[in-house]
Automatic annotation (TrEMBL):
<keyword id="KW-0739">Sodium transport</keyword>
<keyword id="KW-1003">Cell membrane</keyword>
<feature type="transmembrane region" description="Helical">
    <location>
        <begin position="73"/>
        <end position="91"/>
    </location>
</feature>
<keyword id="KW-0915">Sodium</keyword>
<feature type="transmembrane region" description="Helical">
    <location>
        <begin position="280"/>
        <end position="301"/>
    </location>
</feature>
<keyword id="KW-0050">Antiport</keyword>
<keyword id="KW-0813">Transport</keyword>
<keyword id="KW-0472">Membrane</keyword>
<dbReference type="Pfam" id="PF06965">
    <property type="entry name" value="Na_H_antiport_1"/>
</dbReference>
<feature type="transmembrane region" description="Helical">
    <location>
        <begin position="313"/>
        <end position="336"/>
    </location>
</feature>
<dbReference type="GO" id="GO:0005886">
    <property type="term" value="C:plasma membrane"/>
</dbReference>
<dbReference type="InterPro" id="IPR004670">
    <property type="entry name" value="NhaA"/>
</dbReference>
<feature type="transmembrane region" description="Helical">
    <location>
        <begin position="143"/>
        <end position="164"/>
    </location>
</feature>
<comment type="similarity">
    <text>Belongs to the NhaA Na(+)/H(+) (TC 2.A.33) antiporter family.</text>
</comment>
<keyword id="KW-0406">Ion transport</keyword>
<feature type="transmembrane region" description="Helical">
    <location>
        <begin position="31"/>
        <end position="53"/>
    </location>
</feature>
<feature type="transmembrane region" description="Helical">
    <location>
        <begin position="385"/>
        <end position="404"/>
    </location>
</feature>
Length: 436
């Protein structure tokens, strides 16, 4: 039966079949990465509260690297500044591909996750600030609950929401990417205490050469990796957090499409090629290693845990992640629908948006990074912040799982019906006939 024409714009309309397959592929990879991330975080907490805690701390603080280049850094700093640059490189690639070749190149679709991400950054920051307004240095942590962890959130979604519509999964993926890029922009603007313009200008030289080479589709690692390393080095030397270099390098890679084919169906471009190469490295190596050295916090037993969670810093973070993200993401989406008079696509409900908004409260990787930048690694506020990030992320994931699991049962029945309507090409008819 054909749908009646709509006079109003539609939120979360069905994506194209290639986009649906691509998102499903990303979800499979991030499920493994999220599991490794969770395992690394658990190992870190166990080590920090075990007889091996001194050994763990000695490894975290062990310095290595050439002092002549100001790179004699602790292992934990190498994980935060170096390995996370790979994470943000992949994030930059993903965001650029979404807006150049993905379904979100349509501004009417792009505005929804962008607005939701902005709301999901602003409201948690305001809640944290309200709780810590009179706390002196505690206010520096206002950005900690603003970030959504891509690997963790998508891993949870992959486990409890496999049958959710692809439009919802694309929404969460894009929301998390934009959210992280807003967070890295905050890091560059608000957590750069000593900006040195000279090294920052020097970073433009290898970045420019890198950009020129990839425009000509050069894929030779022995040319591109040294240029990327030099870009990272000069950004690090400038005082801006070195992960910004990863984002800039990701934006430099072109998303090549065949104009004759008219879209991403023409096959993967250079950005997608790099994404396939580096996403496993980011999800399975870079982010888990960072978590291993960043999540380990001594709890000090129940008394220490209670003391940490009653600190206004921790209260602001937990409230920001659990309440702020839910209100910010769902509220911004609802306001957008009111102003544009848009309707949810057939079969979707606002409870779906609420569940995804709660899942946006899973803030881990970038939240831990901002906590270190705000308070200093190893300080008491940073320890309390790490406890709060773990607790808030876990609570947000559990609440989201309850809602999304229930909705997944509904969509599983619909999904089974759609899979029955497949042609010999393996594509469900619902993606071929826009009237369905």
């Amino acid at each position: 039966m054909n749908r009646s024409p709509r006079a109003r714009p539609v939120l979360f309309s069905r994506r194209s079949w290639p986009e649906t397959r691509r998102i499903a592929d990303i979800l499979r990879k991030e499920t493994i990465g999220g599991a490794l991330l969770l395992a690394a975080a658990v190992v870190a907490v166990v080590l920090a509260n075990s007889p091996w805690s001194e050994f763990y701390e000695s490894v975290r603080s062990f310095q290595l690297g050439p002092a002549s280049l100001h790179l004699d850094l602790p292992v934990a700093t190498w994980a935060a500044d170096g390995l996370l640059a790979i994470f943000f490189f992949v994030a930059g690639l993903e965001l650029k591909r979404e807006f150049v070749a993905g379904d979100l190149r349509d501004p009417r679709r792009a505005v929804v996750p962008i607005a939701a991400a902005c709301g999901g950054v602003a409201v948690p920051a305001l809640i944290y600030f309200a709780i810590n307004a009179g706390g002196g240095e505690a206010v520096r942590g206002w950005a900690i609950p603003t970030a959504t962890d891509i690997a963790f959130a998508l891993a949870v979604l992959a486990v409890v929401g496999r049958c959710l519509p692809s439009a919802l999964r694309t929404f969460l993926l894009t929301l998390a990417v934009v959210d992280d890029l807003l967070a890295i922009l905050i890091i560059a603007l608000f957590y750069t205490d000593d900006l040195r313009v000279g090294p920052l200008l020097l970073a433009l030289v290898p970045l420019g050469v890198f950009t020129l080479l990839v425009q000509y589709r050069v894929r030779s690692w022995w040319l591109l990796l040294p240029l990327a390393a030099l870009t990272w080095l000069w950004v690090h030397e400038s005082g801006v957090h070195a992960t910004v270099a990863g984002v800039l390098l990701g934006f430099a890679v072109p998303v090549l499409r065949s104009e004759r084919a008219g879209g991403p169906e023409a096959g993967p471009g250079l950005a997608e090629h790099f994404e396939h190469r580096f996403r496993p490295l980011s999800a399975a190596v870079a982010v888990p290693i960072f978590a291993l050295f960043a999540a380990g916090v001594p709890l000090g037993g129940w008394d220490g845990l209670r003391s940490a969670l009653t600190d206004p810093v921790a209260l602001g973070i937990v409230a920001g992640l659990v309440v702020g993200k839910t209100v910010g993401i769902s509220g911004a989406t609802w306001l957008l629908s009111r102003f544009t008079k848009a309707e949810l696509d057939d079969g979707l409900g606002w409870v779906d948006v609420l569940g995804l908004a709660m899942l946006g409260g899973v803030g881990f990787t970038v939240s831990l990074l901002i906590g270190e930048l705000a308070f200093g690694a190893g300080s008491e506020p940073d320890d309390h912040a790490r406890v709060a990030i773990l607790a808030g992320s876990l609570l947000a994931a559990l609440l989201a799982a309850i809602i999304l699991r229930a909705r997944n049962r509904v969509y599983r029945r619909i999904h089974e019906m759609e899979n029955l309507d497949r042609d010999a090409d393996g594509i469900p008819d619902v993606y071929e006939d826009p009237g369905k």
